[in-house]
Structures are given as C-alpha cells and as structure tokens.
Amino acid sequence: MFSFKGVCPPQAFQSHRLLELFVYSCFLFIMAASQTLQLSSLNNVEILPIQVIDIEENKIQEPAVDEFDYSQRGQWLRAAVLGANDGLVSVASLMMGVASVKNDIKAVMVAGFAGLVAGACSMAIGEFVSVCTQRDVEISQMKREKRERSLESDENDEKLPNPGQAAVASALAFAVGAVLPLLAAAFIKQPKVRMAVVFVVASVALVAFGVVGALLGGTPVVKSSARVLVGGWMAMGTTFGLTKLIGIDHGMQI
C-alpha cells in the first residue's frame, strides 16, 4: 500500500491519513445503508395467501341470451290449440260422415253448424271446469306451503291458471277450426267434390295449426304438424267409414 511517510511532512501525512479513513468510513456507511434498504424492502413485501381457484365457478361467462319462458303461455296455448284442432276435426268428420249417407247439402251444412255450436259450448264449459279444479288444487298447495314456510299469500298468484281465459280461448278456437270445413263445403254442389275439398282444407288447416302450436310453444315443427295431421286423418277416416257402413246396413240413401 502506498504511504506518504518519508515523502511528506508529518502534518501532511496525518491529514492524508485522516482523509483515507474518512473515505473508507463513507464507503462502509454507504454499503451498510444499501444493505439496510434491501432488507427493509424485503420485509415490506406482502405475501399474499394462495387462492384456490374454483374452475367451475370461474368459467368464462358467455353473453347473456334472452330466453323466453314458454311455460307461461301454457294457460291459453293448450286450450287454444286443443280447441282449434277439435273444432276442425270434429266438424269435418261430422260433415263427411253425413255426406257419406246423404247427398243433400243442406243436411251436411246443418249438421256442421250444429256441431260447431255444440262443440264450442262443450269445450268452453269443460275447459272452465277443468281449469277451476286445477286452480283450486294449486291454491290449496300454496296455502300449505305458506303455513310451512311463512310465504306471502300472493307470491305466485300470477302463475295460477285463469279459468275464464282458458274457456274463452277454447270456445273461440273451436269456432275458428269448425268454420273452415263449413266455408269449404258451402259453395260446392257435387257431393264427391265437396267431400274431397273438405278433406283437403281440413288437412291443410291441421298442418297450419300444428305449425302455429309448435312455434308458439317452442317445440319441433315437423313432429308437431305430423302428429296433428295423422290424428285428424284417423278421426275423419274412422267417422266416414263407420257412418257409411251403418248407412249401407240400414238401407239409407247414399
């Protein structure tokens, strides 16, 4: 190590010695300060707890899609579809049955109109009684749940079936379905052509009712239409065949 001893006077040597000690002390102080800062920075690091991520609960959320509750339409949709289908099939079958044993257009039209009025009244009354019974059962169930769980009495009132709505829907739908074969046969004089037109109009209307019911209810269109069409054909064919068979056995005019 270099020394100023023997080169500089004793006073200068002592001053340089003090300077060396001062510089060395500053260096040690800086090193100690840097170590202290590093330790303090490590002590201030916040150790976060390990979180267990639930994959099922943190799935990527897809954009919300508006969904419609088709069950809310069930109060009137079931009655309307059933009424229209019943009116169409019953009146068309009745007209074809009468036409199979009697060629008089007046008899066919009167029978069809009588079937329209009787069927509409029957459907309305039957649907009203049926829905009233269902409503009473649901109200009793709600009262039992209220006693057990202290629920509000009017919490689910909007979900209760409406007897008046179902009755009106059934009657109107029956009339709409029944008037179609009547209009189809009203202006045709030839008996065979009249029966063919009634059958074609009834078939087209059955398919249309099946499509409408499927679209409103959110069900497969082809399956619903085929079910309604085949059921109508079976009813009309059975009525026509049995009526014609009975007419032949009893010697009625054909």
Automatic annotation (TrEMBL):
Name the UniProt record assigns to this protein: Vacuolar iron transporter
GO biological process: intracellular manganese ion homeostasis
Known function: Vacuolar Fe(2+) uptake transporter.
Composition-biased stretches (Basic and acidic residues): 143-152
A Pfam family assignment: VIT1
Region of interest (Disordered), ranges: 143-162
Protein family: Belongs to the CCC1 family.
Organism encoding this protein: Gossypium tomentosum
Superkingdom assignment: Eukaryota
